[in-house]
Amino acid sequence: MKKLFILLAGGIAAIVALSLTGPLLGFAFSALLVFAGMHYYVKSKSAISKIFFVVLGLIGVFSAISNIPALIGLGALVVLYVLYKKWNNQEVSFSDVKMKEEDPFTNFENEWAKLTK
């Protein structure tokens, strides 16, 4: 029953993601415009080029606003990722950053345990 639910939800999410590929591509292009506008605005020296890159960034922002359905497509892709992990019985984690413990006493105890073996 669990595998059937995962298969059904995955099929629905795949259909939604495929039907929203147009807005996803438009959203990616508008994000590229915003990034390029910000990047070149910081590097530009003259006022005219700064104005041009601000306008370019605003065009990208307005284009991203018009592609709001792409957020539903992004959500469907995330659901597909989670269901794929669940299908393979893997743990779902969105943060791979492991916090390293900075306590010097713990590190000392670990090193001392290695030395006394």
TrEMBL record:
The keyword Transmembrane helix applies. The chain crosses the membrane at residues 24-42, 51-84. Keywords: Membrane, Transmembrane, Transmembrane helix. The keyword Transmembrane helix applies. This is Lia operon protein LiaI. It comes from Ureibacillus xyleni. The lineage of its organism: Bacteria, Bacillati, Bacillota, Bacilli, Bacillales.
